[in-house]
Amino acid sequence: MNISFVGAGVGSLYAALLLTKRNPSLHITIYEKEARVGGRLNYVEFENGAKVDEGPTIVLLPSKLKQQLIEAGLSEDEVELLEVDPLYRLRYQDGTSFYKYRDIERQADEIERTFGEGDAFRRYMSQKKEEYQIGFNTFLDRSYASKTELFEPKLLLLLMRLKAYESAHGNMKRFFEDERLRVAYSLQTLYIGGNPYATPSLYGLIPYREQEEGVWYVKGGYFSLATTMENELKRRGVRFVMNATVNRVHVTDGVANGVTVNDEYVPYDAVIVNGDFPLMERLVDGVTPKAYEPSSGTLLLYFTVKGELDLPIHQFDLPNDFEGSMRTIFEDGKLSEYPAMYTFNPSRMDETLAPDGTSVLYVLVPVPRKLEREDIEAQGTIDHLVGRIEVLLPDFRERVIEMKVRTPMDAERFGLFEGGSFGIAPKLSQSAAFKPQARPFSKIERLYAVGASVHPCGGVPIVMIGSQLLVKKMEEEMGAIHRDDTRSVSSM
Ligand SMILES: Cc1cc2nc3c(=O)[nH]c(=O)nc-3n(C[C@H](O)[C@H](O)[C@H](O)COP(=O)(O)OP(=O)(O)OC[C@H]3O[C@@H](n4cnc5c(N)ncnc54)[C@H](O)[C@@H]3O)c2cc1C
User: Fold this and answer.
1) Which of 24, 34, 79, 463 stands 20 to 30 A from 71 (CA)?
2) Is the pLDDT of residue 106 over 60?
3) Where is the Amine oxidase domain (predicted)?
4) Whose CA is nearest to atom 4 of ligand 1?
5) Are 436 and 448 in contact (CB under 8 A)?
6) Pocket of ligand 1 contains residue 415 by CB under 6 Å
7) Is the minimum distance from the CB of 72 to ligand 1 under 6 angstroms?
8) How confident is the model at residue 486 (pLDDT cuts 50, 70, 90)?
């Protein structure tokens, strides 16, 4: 059986690992329009040879990730996971700052010291523990055959119990009095491109899990996970075709039977699309594309600098009026004057990224989509952000060797739907059964999908859960394909 993947993002790479582990006789071809695998899980390279992660930096769900790698036949020592503790520092414009620690009692003390709400934090952790188990098993780790499944009374009751009708930030009002704490435990919806004031509290379980399992780091950079997967797939005989754009997915009589790649038709028994789903849908014969709402855009600055940087590995630098800043970005579609800023200083724990005597720094800021560098420069945003780094590192500007910038329009040109960094927006009408599934069209057989805009959600280990659901679905259906040889393109 010949199977092709459109795109070499982590969703494809991991699904191909699972498929080759379980069905070694499969012939798999992965088409990737770029020269490198990994998609968003990639790196930026500087002239001095330094490298820094281009997209993902925070390894969440480390135990799940380890389990996933083992399930796909990779040994644990192929990917070295290092714990980052404290998880990160939160700095507020008013001068307050506090750390998140994995140890619950240490965290409660830190919150008591800073906000006088240590007990509220303990209550948060015990209530969210219960909610997480329900949320994970019921809504994340399963596929949906139809939208109506979500209306089963049992699921509706669970959604009510999880208060899915509240926003992630609104839900924090049940726990914390101080607005800065509410923000500290809801801003994580931004990890998947959602406004904490509008994203359902179901996604607000991310900060709970982050606190419980901690934040981790892949030695060599998160991007090295993609290279590890690629090398293993090559060892298993998977064919990678790089610089190869798939322009069409062919469907005949309700069955996907091949792709057009670089203007040439190539037959396949099954096709899995991994590019951003709203754009992939447009390639499929006979499908009328649906309207989707994209996630937020991001402005990314990458630096290589002289010397070490006295900054925590992860840091959030937040405005006093966080709510106003979110409104400006998500509702008014404008750049915020004092945006939330995330910095990542991996050189602090990984000397392999930059030549001796230099470091790398990554800066991410949520911004509206559709912005070009000129729009951002016209508002002085890059200068403003560098100025904020200089509050902590006064000579930062002079130490910069090289800076690279990535805008929402760069993301759109790369192939992210409308420049949204994280797939389709995390809102109820685009979640769970309402999200494209591993088998996205009931009327098209042998066409499958995986990736950040496909159920369950964006984020590396979560996309990999999507790969697991995809492989399960394919295996259920592949039995039928084997029995019905008349449908096999190899017999055409
Ligand atoms: C700035 C940023 C920060 C992030 N931070 C984190 C984080 O800290 N932690 C975390 O877990 N996650 C994070 N994420 C999310 C995570 O990176 C994604 O959810 C995940 O990598 C998406 O994988 P995917 O399988 O959807 O593939 P993608 O990364 O979308 O890759 C799809 C691939 O398909 C290719 N392709 C598209 N169209 C075609 C075509 N027609 N023909 C051939 N090839 C095609 C593309 O070139 C691409 O390589 C972040 C993302 C971004 C952008």
Assistant:
1) 34
2) yes
3) 13-457
4) 56
5) no
6) yes
7) no
8) very low
| 339 burial type by CB count under 10 A (0-12 exposed, 13-18 middle, 19+ buried) | buried
Q: Is 297 in the pocket of ligand 1 (CB under 6 A)?
A: no
Ligand 1: distance of its center to the CA of 40 in Å? 3
Check if 469 has its Cβ closer than 6 Å to any atom of ligand 1.
Answer: no
pLDDT tens across 181-227, in order? 999 999 999 999 999 999 999 888 999 999 999 999 999 999 999 99
Q: How far is residue 431's CA from residue 159's CA, in Å, rounded to a whole number? A: 12
What domains does the chain contain, in order, with CATH numbers?
2-41+222-293+426-491 (3.50.50.60)
Give the pLDDT score at 479: 67
pLDDT, the chain, mean: 94
Nearest ligand 1 atom, CA 58? 8
Q: Say yes or no: CB of residue 32 within 6 Å of ligand 1.
A: yes
Instruction: Report the C-alpha gap between 40 and 193 in whole angstroms.
Output: 14
Cβ of 489 less than 6 Å from ligand 1: no
Is residue 484's pLDDT more than 70?
A: no
- Distances in Å between the alpha carbon of 311 and those of 91, 260, 356? 12, 48, 18
The structure tokens listed for 7 are 């795109």
- pTM for the full predicted model: 0.95
* Atom number, ligand 1, closest to the C-alpha of residue 450: 25
Nearest CA to ligand 1 atom 49: 39
Ligand 1: nearest atom to the Cα of 458: 19
For residue range 384-410, list pLDDT tens digits in order: 999 999 999 999 999 999 999 999 999
Residues involved in catalysis: 210
CA angle in degrees (0–180, nearest 5) for 344-349-351 = 105
Cα(327)–Cα(308) distance, rounded to whole angstroms?
36
